[in-house]
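Query protein
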Amino acid sequence: MARLADYYLVVTYDLDKREGEGQGRILQRFPEKDWEDSPFPQGVELFCQPSGWQLVPERQPASFFVAVLTDINSDRHYCACFTFWEGLDNPQLKKAEAGEVDEADDELTVVQPAQVFAPKSLVLVSRLDHTEVFRNCLGLIYTVHVDGLTVPMETVVGNLLTCVIPIAGGSQRTITLGAGDRQVIQTPIDDALPVSGSTVAQLFRQLGIVNVLCLFCAALTEHKILFLSSSYQRLTDACRGLLAIMFPLKYSFTYVPILPGKLLEVLSTPTPFIIGVNSFFRSETQELLDVIIADLDGGTVTIPECVHISLLPEPLLQQTQTLLSMVLDPELEVADHAFPPLSTQPSALKIQDKEIRGVFLWLFARLFQGYRWCLHIIRIHPEPVIRFHKAAFLGQRSLTEDDFLMKVLDGMAFAGFVSERGPPYRATDLFDDLVANHVERIRQEETCPHKVMNHVKELAEQLFKNENPYPVVAMHKVQRPSENSQNSAQSQTPFPMLDEVTVELFIDHAAAKLKTAPPVVKAELKSMVPSGPPLGDTVDRNGNVMANSARRLEVVRNCITYIFENKMLEAKKLMPAVLRALKGRAARVCLTQELNQHVLQNRAVLDDQQFDYIVRMMNCTLQDCSHIDEHGIAAALLPLVTAFCRKMGAGITQFAYSCVQDHMVWATMQFWEAMFYSDVQNHIRALYLETEEGEQQNNHEEQDALGDGREISALELASEQSRLWPTLSKEMQTERVQKEESTVFSQAIHYANRMSYLLLPLDTSKNRLLRSTGLVDVESVSNSYVTNSIAGSMAESYDTESGFEDAESSDVANSVVRFINRFVDKVCNESGVTNEHLKALHTMIPDIVQMHIETLDAVHRESKRLPPIQKPKLLRPTLLPGEELVMDGMRVHLIPDGREEAMGLMGGPPLLPAEGAIFLTTYRLIFKGTPNDPLVGEQVVTRSFPIASLTKEKRISVSLPMDQFIQEGLQLRSCTFQLMKIAFDEEVASDLAEVFRKHMHKLRYPPHVQGTFAFTVGQSGKMVVEHKTKDKNQSLKTLSKNLVKSAKRTIGRQYVTRKKYSPPTWENRSSFQSELDEDEISVSEEVDQSSLTLSSTMRSSDRQTMSNVVERACCRDYQRLGLGTLSNSLTRSKNEPFRISTVNRMYTVCRSYPGLLIVPQSIPDTTIQRICRCYRQNRFPVVCWRNPRTKGVLLRSAGLHAKGVVGFFKSPNTPASGPSQADSISLEQEKYLQAIISSMPSYSESSGRNTLSGFTSTHMSTSDSSDKLRQPKIGALMKQVMGAKEEAPATFSRGAHGQRAKVISLSQPKVSGKARNTPRGKWGSIRGSGRLSAYNPDVGTRLAGKESPQPNGGPSEAFFLRQQKAYLYIIGDKAQLKGGKQDSFQQWEVVPIEVCDVRQVKNSFKKLMKACVPSSSTSEPNMRFLRCLEESEWMALLHRVLQVSVLVVELLDSGSSVMVSLEDGWDVTTQVVSLVQLLSDPYYRTFDGFRLLVEKEWLSFGHRFSHRGAQTLGSQNSGFTPVFLQFLDCVHQIHLQFPMEFEFSQYYLKFLAYHYVSNRFRTFLLDSDYERIELGVLYEEKGERKSPQVCKSVWDYIDRLNKKTPVFYNYMFSPEDEEVLRPYTFNSNLKVWDFYMEETLSEGPSYDWELRGWQERVAEETLDKADSGGPKSQRRIVWPCYDSLSKVVPDAITKLLQDLQSLEAELGQTSEKWKDTWDKMKAAQRTECKLESKPSFSSSLLMASNLSHQRRSQGVYLQESGVGSSINLAMDHEASATSTPVAGRPSTSTLYSQFQSTESENRSFEGILYKKGALLKPWKPRWFVLDKTKHQLRYYESRQDKECKGVIELAEVESVIPGTPTMGAPKNIEEKAFFDLKTTKRVYNFCAKDSMSAQQWMDSVQSCLSDA
């Protein structure tokens, strides 16, 4: 029973405190004393007028609303306020009369009404929420007052305050206040269910479904919610509605349905709230940033940007919305039906309200189903203490990821729910029933909304019945004030004061009566709360599909069985499958169950191998556990990790826990709490089961009945105990309480131990776990809701008392002690452990930890001694000769990177991760090991790269799938497109890893180039840095020293202060003027005039130098091209256009140029010395190639100085005083270019005739047709090259037709006597600049090749304006050429192009490496390979270089000369120039030619290999820029398009690409010839080698290798004469070079040939075949990233050559060189083709010629020969040196070969003879055959040889006579054994093995001659 009203009060406007805002004051209140059970709430007067107390000029209607106040005990008080208005005289006017008005009030007096109205409120304060009853009661009091009823007011109020009604139970109570009224109060049946009237339905009507759901989720996830409305009652209703749908959760934060305006600052509180505010204050709510505002009147919900509301998980959200719309808007479903049902009206509001609540009840039943199975009961007596195991609940529902549920379970409302509904023995309600007994129904129906709807309607009915148990009775009778009294305007009597004594008497009287009345005892129906079906059954269907595969569980079980049966090999095979299976939850559970069976009496002792496997499985299981352990896996493993152990020696045992510590879960407080509580629950359950069994030993039947074959759950037990509790005696009760308490206490000690096991690392010097998780000092968020009372303070105090102050382990020990202390405080407070026990625990913990640390130290010591068992032995890498280990192997794991092949993602077993060792040698970094996956455990994985190619190294930390530790590792990237991610094994000390890094850096960046491997190779002593090398060939050494000395002398003072090796930077000259000054100060270049002019005056030492320089590659090439021989240049013969100048022989003119340069004949050396200053780095234009057909030349130079003389472009604006020096230099430059132009035959011819009409030379008219075809092509090329980027508006103006004047502009016609009449219309000269539009406004039209009108307006006849070709094109940098003006009379032409910057290349290469060798695999679409490749822009750069090169080729081919003058002349220039020569000249596409090309253009002309490759410490900062690699890639692209034009294979290019960065050879070290000479590297190759096995030059190495194996040779090589290649250059035609992508894990990169186990592999295979008894399959698996494809699947020809070799080896013959075999086959092929009438495709060797035949028709030509017309495939490019019959001169042998019979018939006499070679050649043994049939003496290299080496036609033999031994003849042979054979051509000297055989030979030959 409860009072209907606690307090009644009258509140009125306070006239005394009117200053500022109006206030209210309490006029009267009854009772005046507070009730003990509910004190009077403060601040009621604020809530009566929430918008403030004000006087108003007009009377307002009376109003009523209910406000809610919450007191300090969080009890709600309902304040019903009834407000009416009373008139009173205007206080302002009174003031004025009294003369009290101050100035401020003056303006107010203007319009002041005589009477104003003040509010007065009647308020009831109650703890019951009966809105209508309160409205009626207060209305009645008002009516009594207004209508002046006869009833005394005191009686009415007295009755109201003494009325007592029941709280619940469903009874109806009729009350009367004694004024002739009667009301029925209906109490709900169950007050646990909220009473909502129709407020919920109202709320949905106002806001709509989605908005209310939003608010619902926001309230549950603890957001701030603010309602706005202009009606107070609606605010209260909306808040009440929102709380009603939250049932069974109760809202426990700030709840103020009506907030007075004065308290608005409450809205900025940080805690969540639900508050209502009048719309009047809307503007003040605007700046609230984190409040969700629901406007009831407008129907909107505004969610601020910063607030994220977690919504219900799908599919629940969708289903709930559907159900709600079925309730609120039933028409929606049938809106589209053709025949809609007649009535689909929604139910009445009251019913609808309950239906909506039914939906929410159904929703909660689904959300919380099975929650009771996750309750831990940790105390039963004296009060049940219950905890909820959140992690298990989420895990079983597989909703761990769900934001909404996580937040709800963490929230206060749910905490209240657990403490209220947790106890197992209490009254139950609708929700308990629903969540326990209807789970099955809900599950079956959830997909069918109509069935769910029926269920909801049933629930609604129950809810409705709860509020209205009886049919409505019309017994209400309440007076309302009459109409006239309400509206009467005349002032009424003020509301009377009540007589307090009368009312108090009433109250006292009633209180006395209550005391005497017998207590109403309402039997509370307590019962056991049903738990419902356990969760596991309900949820498994949305658990992982993968988890349930029975096969996986079988594998796990088998593996464990094998381990315990000690079948380790079997276990090892299953291990990877097990580790994969353990990703699934079921398998993990299975593992814990299986392991459990092997534990006896809490112990399982294993041997090392078993222990290792078990630990690995445990780690794998724990690895996928989240830190809250939602599946209880860690919980199940916890007892096991303290059970499995291994003996380690004298009484020392290592337990599994020391190996599984590194998992987050152990550092999570929540996990430990949940574990502790579940254990406590089990123990308490056991405690009571024992007592019961003790009591019930006699009556077994009863036990059985209760057991029901099912275990009694702890909750059931607890419920039973709670029921019995009141019946127990005091002693029994205290005994039980003590037993429970000590159970908890003993568990706490147990857990302190357990936690120290798992938190203290084996090596206590490293505290990994707690430090890394950062949980040391953070208060844990946990699912226990009791505050930490004494935790902090006690932990501190006990810590210091403990007395253990162990210095070195203190930080670990302390953090662990603190962690355990916090845990103990928390759980003990929550589970009611006594303070004494708690103190004891705190004293114990440090001791426990310390003891454990001591035992661990012993274990740690022992574990270090253990031999590592599972680790595979380290494999040694094979080293190159001269390569030495710097650091021996360190055990590491090779981690997979982003390349997927090796990880088995593309099929096949994963080769990575692999375990092995990393070796650092003087040359390479090598990893060698075996894959972790046992299926491929026999394979060896090798990854290596040259240390010099390391581009980036960064530290990483790696967690391995197998191991429990996070290891430190390194990620190493190499520019040979290799990436190594290694993790150091735990046995590698971290300082060792540091030493490794330091050594690596030292080797990567030696202080000087002499520290690189190419120099230190073969020298003993590790880390060799400076070594003085002694050379056998001293003369060369002194020579190079002389050269350098004289160079230094010549260079003079200018360089004395420079550091020795830095290449001179001459581009820093600011302007030409400063250059001149410098010249005057140090006349450096003119020091030794005599030595610089005529070469006749050269010193002898210099002459020797010159002869050496002549041997250099350049000179051989210049002579081949006919660019002047050296003798020519020295004697200055005038007929050659070019000479070889020695001006730079001392490297004084240009350091980075070679010593000999080709310059025009007419230019003296002095001019050159002056010209060179205009160019950057002094790299002036020199000739490097001449087109043999057109005699056009290709020149290279650097760009002009940025601010230097662009004089020959600019109009000379000479000062009046006379020509300055600058001007003269620009004139000399012009002269130089003119000299080049005049060297061209085409020019000299035309200038000979003094006109330009004879422009085309004779050879050009022959190639007329081809030229015509080519013209438009060049134009287009120019367009592409120059318009590669959008041009800057400054450079191009628009032509008349709006086309860009990009390409062709006009060059002025030279004025001559007659109009120029060129034989053919040549295309116009090329100038990419609109500056020329001054000459010709209509340049644009010329792009289309149209004629345009003369600039002077003359006629536009065709002959008038012939487009003329320039003689010399200068390819220059766009940026450099700005502002130059073209002179109309010059014959050269500038083509501005944009070149790629070195920085661009560097960045592009970095991105290319990341694309081809990603460091980690990614699924992001924009990180895919093709996207990354595109972003790297590598292909675009190749395209640009190739495009420019093709343009230059076209220009040269059309007869012009070209000068490439870009950047410093050593990067892009070199690329373009070398590509042009490669494309134009077939010679450079052979081995010798390509070598020569690289030596000449790259090495001699000073490409800065050391600088661009960052080879030394000095160039480290410049970074790696692969300019040469870019060139090789371009060659590769051309090779792909013209596979038959190159003698070398793609492998050759890859070989160079690898070794130009590897520093294995000296070829690509240093930046110029000058530096090489200075180090004495340049000529040493000529001298004898120090050690034969060490090659210093990559070329020698390739030559040697090429003799042994055809790997560099391109079998398809069949070139055409004079073929100029024109590759396609568009991006779509370019392919990614496989050099960037391929890798061979079986042996590492294949470019160090000595390391390839070619022969060994063959031998192994033969052995294998011998072993196998049964038939062996010929098939073998080839893995793309593992096997070397060229080796495993060689092409047919290589295979045949290999077979041949191995067969010869088997027969024990000396094997022939592959090249000879190949040449023989081709020659035979040729002969065969000649003799047949059609080409034969019989042999596979014809492949090459066959292709050439298909590709070009002119390749097959008819040849007239003596034999008759036969088709010959052009394979004659190899002129054989021996007397093999040459096509075209058929010899007798050719004729015979058609009808050759068996060999034996033709061999009349044969044997070995020594034959003397030609002049200066040695004697060689040969196998001679005397053939009577063919009448010839043939000789072969050996008896087995099929192809004869030479033939002596007997027809030509004149005589056979005995001879004499000559020089070099074989020793120990008698003199008579020599004989001579004289032919018409020469004399052959022979020597037989003895005199007898000599005689036989002479006779046989003689007899043949006589027969003839």
Remarks:
- The chain has 64 helices and 44 strands.
